[in-house]
Amino acid sequence: EGTKTFAAVDLGASNGRVMVGRVGPGTLHLTRAHRFPNRPVRLPEGLRWDILGLYGGVLDGLRAAGPVDSLGIDSWAVDYGLLDAEGALLGNPVHYRDPRTHTVAEKVWATVPPDELYRATGIQHAPFNTLCQLVAAQGTPQLAAAKRLLLIPDLISYWLTGEQGTELTNASTTQLIDPRTRDWAVGPARRLSIDLGLFAPLRRPGDPAGSLLPHVLEATGPGGPVPVTTVGSHDTASAVAAVPARPGERFAYLCTGTWSLAGLELDSPVTTDASRAANFTNELGVDGTIRFLRNIMGMWLLQECMRTWGESDIAPLLAEAAGVPALRSVVDAADPAFLAPGAMPERIAAACRATGQRAPETRGETTRCILDSLALAHRHAIREAQRLADRAVDVVHVVGGGARNALLCQLTADACGLPVVAGPAEAAALGNVLVQARAHGSAGDSAAIRELVASTQPLTRYEPSGDRAVWESAARRAGGWSGPS
Ligand code: LRH
């Protein structure tokens, strides 16, 4: 019947999943084979990913998935593992929230001024960009010994197949790719003494990426040889590929998870001074698209509070938050001050006080402050994106975990003054599956992929409600970014 089965490995900053998608004409069915926590580890040398634990979770997931026609891997962006001359991993990959990059910006900009770097790469300044991480690592024994750098999904792919590559959408988040040529930004790399020879050759979504090694097949269970297919290996690239927009729809997207990524899909990058000043980034998407977006701290703010509180269940917090009066106090949810882990409830309270607002006291109040602040930041980013790219938007597609958060979706609709279409929550896995499906002949072009998602996945629509003026005045209170918009 032409239906094929694909496994999507989707590694997020707080958990990993192996999903199984069955795709055929007019059919798209996604199930979860395995979900496992991603727990960063604090060591004397800093904050590290437990990459072997994650790899173990991937193998368990592939076993649970059963026989598939292909598999693809996506994860959070920017981080990498270093390999020695024999291909062995040199230490635990550093977490992008590790403080080693805190003071690196000045060093980078002294060599390549920020406006030049932005025009050359289209990537916002963020201390966690791979470029900043590599400059911070210069002079360390590990980098000196390294012969190869593999981004996280490419590292997992290497361990599964023995083959090395650098997937393009994720490569763009290194801040070492020119978004116009879609190839390495050789000039900035040379000036910053970053050796581009560390990177394996570029490959694109849809390209073959090898097949599972015999010892991997042994671990993942019976079945024939399984090809690995390159997908948009940056989770946000995969998620945006699965946004259920209809042809001609003027949409913004909001990918919600640990981060909120809010912006537009464009044909070409916007690298004006205004867009740099607004810290908008131009990441490469699947099929030659540009993701023009802003990073917002996202559910990280709440996840970190929950870690501090020792609370693992979000439902009671959301229920409490729904009963707290709206917009009592708000913070700038895009402020890099919230990037580092630790003491999040106190930092949020301090930010409220610093802007002359009442500090939230209960867990419900803190949760409410976070949701209101996220909605405000979503509003600001989507308005700015339209202004900077000179594009109007009629609808906001919310995909990722936050699509299940009804309060967040309604607040986002209210704040933006636009309808929100929420879903699918597993957009990254769906985009991963569908790019594989296309490479294996069971899905159509990018518009057909979106149509398939729109016609098969449950979506919830939220109409904007309430008084928009309250958001205007709240934006002025949060300080920082809110400016005169
Ligand atoms: C979301 C994400 C985001 C990046 C961040 C490092 O998971 O990939 O797009 O900015 O992680």
Describe this structure in words.
With 485 residues, this protein is an alpha+beta fold. It is 38% helix and 21% strand. The chain is built from 19 helices and 21 strands. It has helices at residues 51-65, 104-111, 114-121, 130-137, 141-145, 152-161, 168-171, 186-191, 214-220, 235-241, 273-277, 300-309, 315-322, 344-354, 363-389, 406-416, 427-439, 446-456, 469-478, and strands at residues 4-11, 15-24, 27-37, 41-43, 46-48, 70-75, 80-83, 148-151, 166-167, 177-178, 183-184, 202-203, 208-211, 227-229, 251-256, 260-266, 281-284, 290-296, 395-400, 420-422, 460-462. The strands form 7 sheets. A 7-stranded mixed beta sheet has the order 17-18-16-15-19-20-21, with helices on both faces. The chain has a 4-stranded mixed beta sheet with strand order 3-2-1-6, sandwiched between helices. β1 and β2 (15-24) form a beta hairpin. α10 (235-241) crosses α17. The mean pLDDT is 96. The site of 6-deoxy-beta-L-fructofuranose has 14 residues, from α10. 6-deoxy-beta-L-fructofuranose binds next to α10.
Please give a handful of descriptors for the protein shown.
single chain; 485 residues; alpha+beta; 7-stranded mixed beta sheet; 4-stranded mixed beta sheet; 38% helix; binds 6-deoxy-beta-L-fructofuranose
